[in-house]
Amino acid sequence: MNRFLVGITLVFALACGDDDGTSTPDGMGGDAGPAACGEGQVCATLTVPESFDGTPREVFVGLYSSLPPAGPPEVFVGNVASPAIAAGMPMTMALDDGGASGDYHVFIALYVEGGGMFNPEPGIDYMATTAPVTFGAGPVELGEVALELAE
């Protein structure tokens, strides 16, 4: 599986949804709908399969010029600790794009309790990648991103 180096030093700790599932001012929330995507942000609504029953620990978002991702991302977008996501409860996010400019694949990993730390653990953690997306020309709205069990 792909290896993320421990040397990633930039970490964003963003609040997740409120207890009632409504969106919070930083754009994180439950099923309240997508946050407004502003200049210099990457936005998405993350979903998990109906069979998801894990305890979410962290969402990681990074940008890579090629797939499969290997090593640390070329641009670190952010981490979300204790994300408010569950089966039937999507999570909206609006994160700073890290100053990215150019075409990148977005890699998103959902780490769950008992899963990996720097690599999604096959059969436990969830992940998704996108086709190349152009950054630096306005907000990047990914829409709905379905996270699948890591293989």
Features:
disordered N terminus; mainly beta; Immunoglobulin-like; 6-stranded antiparallel sheet; globular
Question: What does this protein look like?
Answer:
0% of the residues lie in helices and 37% in strands. With 151 residues, it is an all-beta fold. Strands 2, 3, 5, 6, 7 and 9 form a six-stranded antiparallel beta sheet that branches. A three-stranded mixed beta sheet has the order 4-1-8, with no helix packed on it. Residues 1-34 have low confidence and may be disordered.
Whole-number average pLDDT? 81
> Which CATH-level-2 architecture?
Sandwich
What's the Cα radius of gyration? 14 Å
Rounded to the nearest angstrom, the distance between the terminal CA atoms is 9 Å
Q: Can you count the helices?
A: 0
Query: Which term fits the overall shape?
Result: globular
> Uncertain spans, ≥5 residues at pLDDT below 50?
1-34
Strand fraction: 35-45%
Produce a short descriptive summary.
This protein has about 150 residues and is mostly beta strands.
Topology of helices and strands:
Elements: E1 41-47, E2 56-64, E3 75-81, E4 91-96, E5 102-112, E6 126-129, E7 133-135, E8 140-146, E9 148-149
Parallel strand pairs: 1-8
Antiparallel strand pairs: 1-4, 2-3, 2-5, 5-6, 5-7, 6-9
